[in-house]
Amino acid sequence: MKIEAILFDLDNTLASTNKLKDIRERGAYDEITEELLSTVKPYKGTEKLLERLISKGIKIGIVTNSSKRYAETIISHLNLPDFDTVVTYTDVGSSGMKPNPTGINLALKNLGLTNPERVIYIGDDYTDIIASYYAGVIPIVPSWASRTPVSQVPAAVLSTEFLIDDVDEYENIILMAENCARHNSFKFERKRFYFVPLDESANVIPSSETLSTICLGRYFSQKSLLTTKLHDSHPLSIEIAKKEHDDNYVPPEYWGDILAHAADNIPSFFRAAKGFDIVTVIPSKKEKNQRLEKVLENARSKSNSDAAFIDDLFVFSEGAKSLKTLPKDQRSIEIESSLHINPKYKGTLEGKTVLIFDDIITTGSTLKRAYSLLKIESVKHSLGICLAKTVSISEVDRLCPECMCHILKIRKNSLTGIRFWGCSGYNDELEKCEYTESIVEKQCPDCGRDMVKKYNKWKKVRFLACTGWDQEPRCNHTESE
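and the corresponding structure tokens:
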């Protein structure tokens, strides 16, 4: 897929402007002196990157929450190549500031672009990433810019060099696990083992200085309209979700290929003198499907590493709760009391290097607990690797209008595949509630009322229909899905 444009945040993405932060936030632009401006310089490589993009015919632009006056001052001072569009706070107002996608959408309109999936947005803040997901563009965190961790996971973390080399095609920069899911295989032509570096709290970090976990993809949750929509067109998310509905789920072959490749090659990538001593997994809870243990066994059979592949280095206590059922702030408390080093390995790990595999992380509390347990055992170094980090964009919970005691959740009709809002009390034995409502997809171009998905059981196709079909005045407008 050809990239048509790259949009940039301004502050701490194209140049470090920390010394102007107070002035910027107060709007005291008259206080910006030549002396202060002299401290603002483009990040290394950005000018070359912009020139390269222009030479390739890729449009460039800026979308910033800063005002027009401030942005023009900084852009003029930086003396960078001319941008095709610059969208500022002055253009969108307070309601259009990121994470609202209004600014990005306006930039696309200014550039005459109608395919947001062919556009990259580069920014250093979580609001940049969220705005990108809402606008449908590709969010990238720059490794060359701010060193501040970011809580939301982007499509990639890239340097100017990688962008210059690989920006022609989006397929060149897709995260490894996502690429494998698209091909349902590890065996395909690829340029690099792309990953997102995470710290111990599962925050995205622009550099490897505090690297604790290598993240190979994203998992779009099904807890909001936006992430559910992204989930349904994302092969890795679809694959990971299968384990929730199949007690006998068997991970695909490429999961083991990925782990074997990591065990064999990560040490040399980080210029380590020797390979891992131990490769292990976050274990399944007792009596649960031994999902990751199967991946470990698969990797063992394919790896050329001298490491010991151990599936029971960690153990869960009896009665350990599933973290996905707990609020985020309670997960670390639960994992602290339930995950332990297997007693038979205590006292044997001093000076070892350990690679820990997990399939999906959200808060990072499980891997963080594993790291702390290994530190107690005087392990020399530990590194986590996960298939995906959850992209979870919060929306205000909606109370069920019928029972007024449960919140609405997004569910899926198993026959038609159509998503809908359903009361979370559907399975509540004491206060069962069967309320449902359709998800609004768009407004009807004929009458302006809501359009929702419907299913033609004779033709076995989904379509969009105006909700005004039984209202006054009647509207029978329909569209293909």
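(Above: one complete record from the training split.) The first helix runs from residue 21 to 26.
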